Batch of 4 targets.
Target 1
Amino acid sequence: DPLAWECALYYCVNDYKAVVRDGAFSQTVQNTWRNDSATHSQSDDLVYSPPKSRINNTGRNFEYRVHNLAAQALNVFMTDTFTGSGRIEQSNKRPAFSSDVIQALYEADDVPIRVRNLAVSMSNNMRQQNDSDSYPFAGTAYKTQTFLHVRWPWTAYPMTLLTVSVMCLFATIRQTTCHKVNAWKSSTLALLFFGQGLDSDHDDRSPSNTLSQMTQRSSNLRVELLETDNHGWRLVER
């Protein structure tokens, strides 16, 4: 079935709300105002002065102007671009269009959406131009800041382990001090002399109560591993 649309492109004043959330920029049109009674001639500029009740203007300018030469040039360009024809040849089913724009409109599923997207693109281009009448908007900017939230109940278990470890350390130090335990550190001589007892045939052996005494005695000591009667093993001094 044939379909027909009537779409119009016109100058208007929009009231935008811009938001930056989590680094993503988004904007929405709050209000739109257009001057339906505006007339356009070859020598006059297009002037738009929206009422404050329609547009929330917080800047310095309350009058928006489109230069007559720019309006004329855009009018000629849009007229030439969107004027054309197209058809489908019945003989070979090949499309025949006067321009790519007309073919794109013919193949579009929704022509009003295409025209609306064109209007948005033109508006964005105008807003991005380096206009001497433009001014920066004074607003509030936010930045990301690291925030630490400590859940103290979760630290109960590691703090308890730390407390018990410190108490065990001081208890060990106290017990070794009270019983006057010698500091053997990582020496294995203590296990050699006092682990299971070293059988020695010499009764005149020197005392081996300190690390230095055990080191001195071990320098002249030779031992061997022998099997006992109960099928065990024992170090015996040679």
Target 2
Amino acid sequence: MPWDSDIDVHVSEGSMEFMASYYNMTIHTVHTTHAPQGKNYMLEVNPKYTNPSPGDHLNTIDARWIDMLSGVFIDITAVHPKRSHPGIMYCKDGHRYRIWFYARFM
């Protein structure tokens, strides 16, 4: 299959650094109408998140949001500006993204 069966999200380098600094290995309880007693989730940040190289094949996922009951998780990967190509962001898995708001935020 050309895809995997989980959910992937991307965050900025700054957001990943913030999560690693303040929320790594923290447990969050979320209350919903389907789980009024709450469900526990853990944010786990890979210590190798600071290495943006796509060559590190063992560390392509920077963080995970993990359901502590089922073990189901959401992969979280940081996107980095490609300094040699303004307006392009990339992540460790080789994906490239063109951003239309580059001039306003970079």
Target 3
Amino acid sequence: MTRRSVYAGALVAFLASCAMTLASIIEPRWISWDSKTPNGPHIHYTLGLHRRCSSLTNTCDYFPHRQDCHGDRYFCSMWRSVGFLMSFAVVIEGMTLIAFIVMLVGGKQKREQGWKVISGLLVLVGLIQCAGMALIAFLYDNDDRFFPGWKLDISWILCTISWSVQTVLAGGIIATALLLPSEGGYELIPDTEREE
């Protein structure tokens, strides 16, 4: 197995994890609440990093509002920090994508030396996303607004899978760099005239 094929496979897995990161940011379903009323409709309420949606009004609006932060700036600061961390993670993912392309298009030397850059970027993205996921889990466990019935939803799960995949990819690329033999380069053509 060549390093090029390892990096190509890692790039495919990386692109899948990037799609999960973007979906977790776009889809407003980090934390949700469902309730069935005896005489009324099913109520579904979701919170995303930048929007909240309600089945009562069938609309989504900006979140957190200024009124959500009145008297509780801690929650809003933490929630907005997660939004920043996830956006920052997307920027680092873009840099990692460029590094992957340079490694695949570049020569043997880039593939043999560039693993340090790619694995470092993958670990960085994994740590940033893990921090964002952990902050949401902390708020879910400790903030009074999340009473029984609230649950961590699909966006939180996508973020968790994304940073896990990227961390495993970093480990795989490091293992590949250390364990695979060097790619075959140019070999000298034996001089047949001198041997005779």
Target 4
Amino acid sequence: MPFSHHSHSGQFCPDHAKDTLEDVILTAISKNMQVLALTEHMPRGEQDLYPGEKSTLESLTELHDRFVGEAERLREKYSGRIEILVGFEGEWIRDESLKLMQDRLRKHRMDMFVGSVHHVHTIPIDYDKVTYVEARRKSGGADEGVFGDYFDAQWNMLKAMKPPIVGHFDLIRLFSDDANRHWKDCGGDIWEKILRNLRYIAEYGGLLELNSSALRKGMTEPYPKVEICRAFIEMHGRFVLSDDSHGVHQVALNYPRMLSAIREAGIQEIYFLKRTGKTGLDPRFPGVQAVDVPVASLEGHKVFEP
């Protein structure tokens, strides 16, 4: 019974994803997935476009509106074959990001959203090495500086948005000098900031995403690293699975390796979101609940087989 709570398509994320939304869903069905959340990026202002991107806030808003309509159509079409959740990936770039997120929630009845940080000092930190280095320079020139600023930005996002799912918690390590080093080995107060953020997520009832995309990008562990998962377990935190797929070839990609990390961390239960008609996840998303299953129940499913 695999799940993914974070996905993209080339149809509605044309700059860095592939394939139609329907093809992504059909691939998930072919893999006997139980839950697929459709979470295209929320609109961004013109000042936050990526290099070479030719869009406007108006065009990105219109694109996301069309995404919601198509996602709802496909949810109805494939009802009974897969549980489809309609949401978005939230962005925290600057103070105005909160209003853009709230606009999405006011305009559409969403099932959930993923709260993410892709920028530090309004500069992308996962787009390429060049922009990461620029953000790092603004943080003093060392990885530790931009790490600390990233987790502070994440802290601000968590307090403002209280996302039901927190996306790729330690994304900041992607283009660092050593993306696999242990967080506890970093200097300064970085580990304390990580624990502060985890504690807040646990307190408001957020779900921490186990995101397999780190593995296809060359890292040895999913987001977040095992040491972070262990700390979140001690806080009685809850986890969900995500592939952060950007096309059909990435649906459930590297789930066997992610299951190994789950075992190593000592995670005993995995949660998934379900439209039950009863509210239990968040009052902003009536009718959606978080349901738990034992990790042992995942074993034996074909997407988790090496």
